[in-house]
User: What shape does this take?
Amino acid sequence: MTDAAVASNPALVADATVEATAVSKWFGHKVAVSDVTCSFGPGLTGLLGPNGAGKTTLLRMMCGLTVPSEGTLTIDGQLPRREVEVYERLGFVPEEAAVYGALTGREFVEYAAKLTGLADPKAAAARTIAVVELEDAADRVIGGYSKGMRQRVKVAAALVHEPQILILDEPLNGTDPIQRAHLIALFRRLGDEGHTVIVSSHVLQEVERMTDRVIAMVDGKLAAAGHIGAIRRAMSDIPYRVLIETDDTRRLGAALVGSDVVFGVTVDGAALRVETTDLASLGRVIARLARDLDLRLTRFRPEDESLESVFRYLVRRR
Amino acid sequence: MTAVLAITRMTVRQVLGLRRLIGLALLAVAPAGIFFLGSARSDPGRIAEGLAGAVVGAFINLVVPVITLIMASSVLGSERRDQTLSFLVLRPISRLSIAGAKLAAAFVTAFALTGFGALALGIVALVRLHDAGYVVPLLVGTAVATLAYAAIFMPLGYITERATLIGLAYVFVWENGIAGALEGLAGLSPWRLGFSAMVDLAPASFETAIADIRSFALGTLEPGAGGSIVKVLVLGVLSVVVTGWILRRRDLA
Assistant: This one.
């Protein structure tokens, strides 16, 4: 990528280790990824998007598990499918199970170490199992693990050879809050140490806790990229639909019509549906009107703030 | 080399479940059991014919391919089914090495059972004919057939989820139907290559004993251990190359 291209495109980074150039992938008539160009460098990047956005396909193409229909994906300038030595520097945690249920956690991580050609697989496995805090369960068979434990043992297997590049597909799925906090801290630390860490998630809050740099995908396309604050600001354009229930919807609706934070009011039986782009201001206005009109509010709930709808909006806007 | 051995060991462990092992071991020794019971009061000539019948009528043309089909189609098929193939291929190991390790595992696991069946037949032949000369030919012939079938069924198990069904159709329709009816096709039949090696190495009287079934069992093939072993080794190399190529070209589950 040229310096000019990097400067003008927030999806690109200057010191890229993983690069996707005009990548598309289709399965029969279904387009999974469409003309995506982006790059990832040292530090942690969140790959964000609703289910079915094409994140997994993009990650699998990065690793060489899936062949792009068009475009190229390189790791340190090399094509993973052709040059297997790439895998000495790459660790991947897939979304699917991808574990041997009959092995113990320790055997599984040791197997990963042996396949990577480490001189002392046992020591490497023990060290990595400690990193993911799985020592107590390490000698139990994986078949009996909870989903969160399986995720951690997969992370251990991906980290055992201390790869410079770590790609994780929904690694926090199934983890409890404590495990999640621990894994997030681990990924952040690896990013801070200069590893290229790419974490996909469909949960905005998870990604927010991990990183500032985000690449967002919707319907196989790149929807937004860059600093999370900028994407947040883009999201503030989205018209929220808010459900309000009160003991006198008609009076409240009439009062709201004149408000400058509201641009649509619908009375729907006992409920009121209000459209706004400024949720916080609407809350203040509603509270004031309820007090002034002596109304009793029983519900105030944004109906349309799911990540999926937010990303759909971003795609439509492009 | 460590990685290849690790894959082979892991695969052997993966496909050799205890219940499967017991079931297939019983299948492997069934022809020996039938031969033992059927040869109780026969003269040596009839016993040798009975051995040939047990080998060609049940063991090398049915038991060996079925056991090898189950084992060999599992070595990559189970990885695909369990979604563990990504774990394996995202390591700095060439796809050819993975395919080689998988073929080795397919052969080892299948031959552990088919070899057991061959040994059982050899021991019954020793007991009934007082001739130890059948043990090694039975083992060599079985090894040749097992490797040939493993070379065919290993990639099949990766390519399709219906490997068992397709493999069985292949064994019954092609191996025991078409290739048996058309003598010229015998050289393309794995069990016949094994049987050719077996006949070549067995005591001379065995060739006389197979006179009635020679056309079906060997077709135009001449008994020859060396030629059969070379052909099967070539088939094994081809299998590894093709599987390695498929692993590199196809999207991996």
Observations:
- Chain B has a mean pLDDT of 91.
- The CA atoms of residues 28 and 120 of chain B lie 9 Å apart.
- The two ends of chain B are 25 Å apart (CA to CA).
- The interface with chain A takes residues 2-3, 6-7, 10, 13-14, 82-84, 86-95, 248-252 of chain B (CB under 8 Å).
